[in-house]
Amino acid sequence: MKIQKALEGASWIRKMFEEGDRLKRMYGPEKVFDFSLGNPFSEPPEEFFAELRKIAQNPIPGMCRYMVNSGYEETRRAIASMLSEETGLSFTGGEIIMSAGAAGGLNIALKSILDPGDEVIIPSPYFVEYKFYVDNHGGILKLVETREDFSLDLEAIEAAIGKQTKVILINSPHNPTGVVYSEESLIQLGEILKRKTKQYGKTICLLCDEAYKKIVYDDLKLPDVFSVYDHCISINSHSKDLSIPGERIGYVAISPLAEGKGELADAMAFSNRTLGFVNAPGLMQRLVGKLTHVSIDISEYQEKRDLLYNNLADFGYLMVKPMGAFYLFPRCPIDDDVVFVKALQVKNILTVPGRGFGKPAHIRIAYCVDRWVIENSLEGFRELAIEYGLR
Ligand SMILES: Cc1ncc(COP(=O)(O)O)c(C=O)c1O
Fold first, then answer.
1. Which atom belonging to ligand 1 lies closest to the Cα atom of 237?
2. So what's the pLDDT on residue 266?
3. Could you give the CA distance from residue 382 to residue 391 in angstroms, rounded to a whole number?
4. If exposure means fewest CB atoms within 10 Å of the residue's CB, which of 263, 264, 266, 327 is most exposed?
5. pTM, whole model, 2 decimals?
């Protein structure tokens, strides 16, 4: 019954997916411009296939057996060494737990941290799966609206923190807005968490979903979340930076400065096992351990961002210019985002209503698609801009 309800709630995204299928059969796939899903268009980098060939040609004895639940020591050490280089902190393999993507990582982290009834504060709009992940582990979701430019509303966050607050979950670069939180705002958030931890005598965890960590534009440097607050955990994924979402690989990194980090790591390894992941896929662990400094070509995403953003801005759409990830989140010319999504659908353009992310009157456009999809959709966006009086 509960899942039935959840399915009904998520039905708009499902509907768009099914609608895309129907339109593609009716008009041919080249006539449908599907921006509904965050499924990367690009193939994994050549280095990924080179490592795959290497291991296929020289299999390691025992490489397909069970392993410790947190993953291969060698992979975790490689990731720890990359993070030490990036942050100046001394990470060891003990602070890294390999996970089944960011989704698996978020679930093992929340399972390990939350007691039933604990609150998780999430800035909204937000990645809608969070709602289910928090509920999976008995947590209570507390949404806090962001500012108009989707930056963190620090006063509102501070006001929302109470004695039941256990976690604040942020996501930067952000799905669905493309925003990257500034270093200044993260430093202030860290200060708030230190103050509130003292006030309530209980440590609040800063959980950072960094699934799009390597997808940032215009040479922007992603602020280091570990430097703003000690009790910080970063969730990472290779779904987007290596374009391998179907392979389910990512990792959780616990700050070397976090209180009780050893117990937390043990709890997450235990949760990996007891939630039924057991461990992250072994073959993928072997590969990503060799690819810590590799990623898909980010400039391709940036070109697509520019093509879409510049044209939509010309047509009169209002939106924040994405700084990372591969989503654009324009305001609709009317308040009813579902009506506007349907109007786009008539032009064979598939997007998702903002209400699916807690923000009505917006649409999410996932531009992780081939360039022709963007180019051929522009006329439809332009026609609707005129129809709805944007120009
Ligand atoms: C913000 C965010 N977090 C987590 C995930 C889950 O990613 P993964 O495939 O690594 O589980 C996604 C997927 O789109 C996402 O957008």
1. 10
2. 98
3. 9
4. 263
5. 0.97
pLDDT higher than threshold 70 for residue 10: no
Closest by Cα among 79, 69, 133, 75 to 107? 133
Whether the CB of 237 sits within 6 Å of ligand 1: yes
Task: Tell me the average pLDDT across 304-332.
Answer: 98
Q: Over 90: is that where the pLDDT of 40 sits?
A: no
**Residue of 122, 129, 288, 327 to mutate, ligand 1, most atoms within 8 A of C-beta:** 129
CB 127 less than 6 A from any atom of ligand 1: yes
- For residue 328 the two structure tokens come to 């654009």
Task: Supply the residue whose CA is at minimum distance from atom 1 of ligand 1.
Answer: 175
Ligand 1, atom nearest to 238 Cα = 10
Residue in this structure with the two tokens 């796939």, named with its chain if needed: 29
Say how many Å lie between the CA of residue 57 and the centre of ligand 1. Answer: 32
- For the CA of 38, the closest atom of ligand 1 is 14
If one residue of 106, 170, 209, 277 were mutated to test the ligand 1 pocket, choosing by the most ligand atoms within 8 A of its CB, it would be 209
Q: How many CA atoms lie within 13 A of 303 on its CB side?
A: 9
What mean pLDDT is predicted for residues 139-155? 98
Contacts of 345 (CB under 8 A, 6+ apart): 19, 23
Residues sharing a CB contact under 8 Å with residue 34, sequence separation 6 or more, in sequence order: 20, 24, 350, 369, 373
Q: 218-244, pLDDT tens digit by residue?
A: 999 999 999 999 999 999 999 999 999
| Residue 283 to residue 51: CA distance in whole angstroms | 10
Provide the pLDDT confidence category of residue 9 given band limits of 50, 70 and 90.
Answer: low
Residue 382 CA, ligand 1 centroid: distance in Å? 31
Give the confidence band of 15 by pLDDT, cuts at 50, 70, 90: confident
pLDDT digits (tens, 9 = 90+) for 97-121: 999 999 999 999 999 999 999 999 9
With CA atoms as reference, report the closest residue to 71 among 319, 300, 228, 278: 278
- DSSP letter string, 278-289: -SS-HHHHHHHT
Q: Which of 237, 241, 352, 368 to mutate to test ligand 1, by most ligand atoms within 8 A of the CB atom?
A: 237
Contacts 24+ apart (CB under 8 A), 1-10: 6/132, 10/128, 10/356
For all residues of the chain together, what is the average pLDDT? 96
